[in-house]
Amino acid sequence: MAGRFLTRGTLDLTHDRPFEDQTSDRENLRLEARLETEGPWEAKAGLWLDRLSFYGNHNGREETRLEWWETYLRFRGEKVEITLGNQLIRWGKADEITVLDNLTWQDLRELFTWRLEERQKPWPWLRVQYFAETFTVEGVFTLWPMWPKRDDFDSDWAVFDHLKKTLEAINFPLSLRLDKQDLSPSLRNAEFGVRVTSSFKQVDWELSFLHAHDRSFYYFLRHFPIKGLELDHPAEPLKDLLRSIGQIKIVGTTAQVRRPQDNILGLAFETVWRGWGLRGEVAYHTGRVFLKKDLEGVQKPYLRLVLGADYRFENGLYLNFQFLTQHILGWSEEILFDPEYDSYLFLRLSKSFWQDFLEIRLDGTYGITTRAYYLNPEIAYKFRDNWEIFGGFHLIDGPQGTFFDVYDNNDQVYLGLKVNF
Amino acid sequence: MKVKWLVFWVLLVVSSQALALTPEEIAWKVYHRPQGRDSQAESLMILINKKGKQKTRQLKIFTREDEKARYTLIRFLSPKDIAGTGFLSIAYHNGKEEQFLYLPALKRVRRISGSFRFHRFVNSDFIYEDLERHYPPKYHHQLLREEKIGTTPCYVLKSWPKKKKDSIYGYWVQWITKDGFLPVRVDYYDRKGRLWKRFEAEDWQKIQGYWTILTSSMKDLKKGHQTVLKIEKIIYDQGLKAKLFTRRSLEHW
């Protein structure tokens, strides 16, 4: 039996808009039990209790969830391993920025302010692995369609919160609602994939194919009820609204959200060279979702490449950087946020002190094309075994019209505690 | 008669010279010393700070050797925040080495690059390099003297890397038992020649015919903290399977 308790409180650095939240807090408790037998069978059961709340404006809210954590039954044969149940499966070789790690359910309710391993949640899969002498073949299958968890309204990180609040502030005669298509588990909505992994002369590589539902941050919106709106300044929709007020036509109150499917073909590698760790991934999507300026969704083929390297200097400084470049095939001017070619640099620096019990780290993402950035300096101190206190800043900014610009006012300071037991 | 004695003494001196080991041979003897076809140990790692405050880590260490390489798998069992962390090292007999790390939080095995060798091993005073066998051809060796540690006769061997990248240390001096070629004390010096760390075996015994260090410590003489490593139980030659030393096994937690 094991468990973990994690909590984090945040405070906005500025309160520049009346409808913005000022604080948030999150408590997360995870309990896990493992059963191993002398034979080939093993089982795991886990529960996850999560509370997230936002305060500071009249729309503040709280959400508590109780869900299964890793809960599965596994058969471990000589060459074959079969696992059925809720599990965390990680594909790909790259670190924080990955384009192939698509088998976990991502919690994006606080966007990317948690690290990847904290955002990832288990999902019910049937996983079959065959371990040959020189390679491994793996198949995954689920009846349950998966997409990331986002908030629509009522949080500073929610997709349509800024737009809705802006409309409300000017008494715009529309109360925006979303009609989400709730896909039921079925063969038609099933997701499946196959992966082959192997090593050649100290180069680990993998080839994968995944048929899944779209994992992007954007909704695939059909019939957005405000017609004639062209959003050029998503962080300040009022500007665009006033500019196009003459052409705007309201045809309803509901935007329909659909869950389209996507195929992802991937190739990844990992190796070491002269003290450096080198990793890379390429993904080709047959239909990735993007948002258009009229706020309806569109699917486009998409090519993504991420290359990364890491190194630990003798003085203990750790450097990890990644370069991500992505290309929308068939791009057009109507696409909001994403340029045809888009590149990002990710940097992680950390240095440890006091026998590694104190760590200072900095994560930074910079949009080469968009010139937007996200910075996360953090300090963490393990004041006794199993107890870690951490604190830092989330700093986000970007030029007008960029995705990061929408969250420009969400700069925050945070303090947290992690306890393992 | 005198001539016979002279010949006898000359032969004795020549043969003893011929039988004396060169520094390189001693280094190879250490490298190849019998450690069993495989072993399984339950150990404690105790971190002791300057003030004497202790933190304990519980771990299992598995080893295996075949015609290709020597394999080592280390799995941490406690404390809870590092429980499940696994480290797999494959030291090929040609001096090449592969290292893999499994962190339960990441749910993924990562290949570790050479630059990690100089980093602290889970908060201890051991760095990854200290856990490796030093492949003799990568280092220079010099036999300084022979002396006893307690009542145990030892070779005192100085070694230093031919290339800077092969060690974070400037040089190290080992006290190696003549019986069993076990390094029972190692003084590590930094690149400026200052004494930095000291490894000392406090208890070593022959178990199932293999010399084994049961209690040892690594002291950081600059910072005043130390790590004690205790083997509580060890079993050799029980026929551990090769599949235990794979990435599949490392990921199994």
Question: What do you see in this structure?
Answer:
- The complex is a heterodimer of chains A (about 425) and B (about 250).
- Chain A is mainly beta and about 425 residues long.
- Chain A has one domain (about 1-420): Beta Barrel (Porin).
- Chain A contains 3 helices and 26 strands.
- Chain A has helices at about 115-120, 160-170, 235-245; strands at about 1-10, 25-35, 40-55, 60-70, 70-75, 80-85, 105, 120, 125-130, 135-140, 175-180, 190-200, 205-215, 220, 225, 250, 255-260, 260-275, 275-290, 295-310, 320-330, 340-355, 360-365, 375-385, 385-395, 410-420.
- Chain A has an 18-stranded antiparallel barrel.
- In chain A, strand 19 and strand 20 form a beta hairpin.
- Chain A is globular and about 70 Å long.
- Chain B is mainly beta.
- Chain B has a single domain, classed as Lipoprotein localisation LolA/LolB/LppX (outer membrane lipoprotein receptor (LolB), chain A, Clam), CATH 2.50.20.10.
- Chain B has helices spanning about 1-20, 25-30, 245-250, and strands spanning about 40-50, 55-65, 70-80, 85-90, 95-105, 110, 140-150, 150-160, 170-175, 185-190, 195-205, 210-220, 225-235.
- A 13-stranded antiparallel beta sheet of chain B has the order 6-5-4-3-2-1-13-12-11-10-9-8-7.
- Chain B is globular and about 75 Å long.
- The model of chain B has no long low-confidence stretch (mean pLDDT about 90).
- The interface between A and B is medium-sized, with 37 and 30 residues.
- Chain B: This is Outer membrane lipoprotein-sorting protein.
- Chain B: Keywords: Lipoprotein, Signal.
- Chain B: It holds the Pfam family LolA_like.
- Chain A: This is DUF1302 domain-containing protein.
Topology:
The complex is a heterodimer of chains A (421) and B (253).
Chain A: E1 2-12, E2 23-36, E3 41-55, E4 61-68, E5 71-76, E6 80-87, E7 105-106, H1 116-119, E8 120-121, E9 123-131, E10 135-142, H2 161-169, E11 177-180, E12 191-200, E13 203-213, E14 220-222, E15 226-227, H3 237-243, E16 249-250, E17 254-258, E18 261-273, E19 276-291, E20 297-312, E21 318-328, E22 341-353, E23 358-367, E24 373-384, E25 387-397, E26 412-420
Parallel strand pairs in A: 11-17
Antiparallel strand pairs in A: 1-2, 1-26, 2-3, 3-4, 3-5, 5-6, 6-9, 7-8, 9-10, 10-12, 12-13, 13-18, 14-17, 15-16, 18-19, 19-20, 20-21, 21-22, 22-23, 23-24, 24-25, 25-26
Chain B: H1 2-19, H2 23-31, E1 38-48, E2 54-65, E3 69-78, E4 86-92, E5 97-103, E6 108-111, E7 139-149, E8 152-161, E9 171-177, E10 183-189, E11 195-207, E12 210-220, E13 226-236, H3 247-251
